[in-house]
Amino acid sequence: MPLPVLMQLREDLLDLKGTGIGILEHSHRQPTYDRVLAEAVESCRVLGEVPDDFEILFVSGGATNQMALIPLNLLPDGGVADYPDTEVWSAKAIVEGRDAVPSATIAVPFEGKKFRYDHVPAVGEMTPTAGAAYMHYCSNNTVHGTRFHTPPIAAAGVPLVCDASSEIFGRPIDWSKHAMVYAAAQKHLGVAAMSLVIARRDLIRNPVRRLPSMFSYWSHATLESRINTPPTFAIHTAGLMFRWMISEGGAREFERRNDAKAALIYEIIDGSGGFYRGLSRPECRSPINISFRLQSEALDKRFIDEATRAELDGLAGHRDAGGIRASLYNAMPLEGAQALASFMRDFMRKNG
Ligand SMILES: *Cc1c(COP(=O)(O)O)cnc(C)c1O
User: Fold this and answer.
1) Is 126 close to ligand 1, i.e. is its CB under 6 Å away?
2) CATH number at residue 104
3) Confidence grade of residue 352 (pLDDT, cut at 50, 70, 90)
4) What's this model's pTM, rounded to 2 decimal places?
């Protein structure tokens, strides 16, 4: 989290907008919270350059909750949805989707597991299902460190739904190609257990089945993300994160910064003569999550232990991929990547 946002939050816990009452204590039906919500929605629209025909929703629950709500809202009984499988998160979405609507078919037009998830489908590598209700994909694969540089191509007229949890606003979003983009808040927007959902109005207006209000995106839209008591602190925090990202130059600037940070690390991997081995094919590498291994698990472990002692934390790979993962999220400064790069160089000198 960026320090200016944390400092503002500390102040707002005690006194929000000069009211003498903190964010945790304000009612969600009072004018002060109306302003918090309006500012969050407005700054999200500016930061994401979100067109007017898209609703901006804050929905309690993480990305995994959306993996159930999306099929409940969009996938009719007997229908088909396309889910290219590019990693653990897309695989989880497939399982959740099947459990949410057992009467429908979740088709998997690309099975990344066969390739140990080392790439995302190239153009022409998968055959999308004509007439699918939608295609769901994960734009940045957090665990194995791959990314779609351009969105996958669904069958003609099939809406594209994107899990962008690990890269939201780390680059501009092409709204002409997406009907819905969602992201769990904990990686780039602050507080866990809430999701940002940006959805085209015509996609969510008529859920394919009758749903309890909390499960219906349209209910969230018509009731301004406050059907019941909303996660006000998380929404306020997301609003501050949006404004911080705007003040830093917006999605294009974060794309530039993230590419610069990632280049430092990939340069070392590529120039290491096989000492460091990237898990993903170069043409679909993620600039946000960089996954690699050394020649043995023992050496991976030594790398992580020594890095931790050097105050470089959180480098152990996800349990599904193993190895090492450097996550260079938007708020990570260039100095963080430089420190890792110089540690990697030293480690190679001592152990290569
Ligand atoms: C972190 C992450 C999630 C997390 O989901 P939660 O249910 O909020 O824990 C989902 N998808 C992707 C791509 C992620 O990176």
Assistant:
1) no
2) 3.40.640.10
3) confident
4) 0.97
Regarding whether 341 and 310 lie in a shared domain, the answer is yes
| Overall number of domains in the chain | 2
Query: If you measure from the C-alpha of residue 89 to the centroid of ligand 1, how many angstroms do you get, rounded to a whole number?
Result: 7
In which band, very low, low, confident or very high, does the pLDDT at 256 lie, cut at 50, 70 and 90?
Answer: very high
| Cα(64) to centroid(ligand 1), Å | 7
Long-range CB contacts for residues 322-326, cutoff 8 Å, separation at least 24: 322/293, 322/297, 323/279, 323/291, 323/292, 323/293, 323/294, 324/291, 324/292, 324/293, 324/294, 324/300, 325/143, 325/145, 325/289, 325/290, 325/291, 326/265, 326/289, 326/290
Domain of 304 in residue numbering reads as 250-351
Task: Give yes or no for residue 320 having a pLDDT over 90.
Answer: no
* Residue 167, ligand 1, Cβ within 6 A: no
pLDDT digits (tens, 9 = 90+) for 56-104: 999 999 999 999 999 999 999 999 999 999 999 999 999 999 999 999 9
**Active-site residue flag, 52:** no
Q: Which one of 247, 279, 295 terminates a domain?
A: 247
Average pLDDT of the chain to the nearest whole number:
97
Same domain, 314 and 285: yes
What is the CA(21)–ligand 1 centre distance, in A? 33
335 and 213 belong to one structural domain: no
Same domain, 169 and 257: no
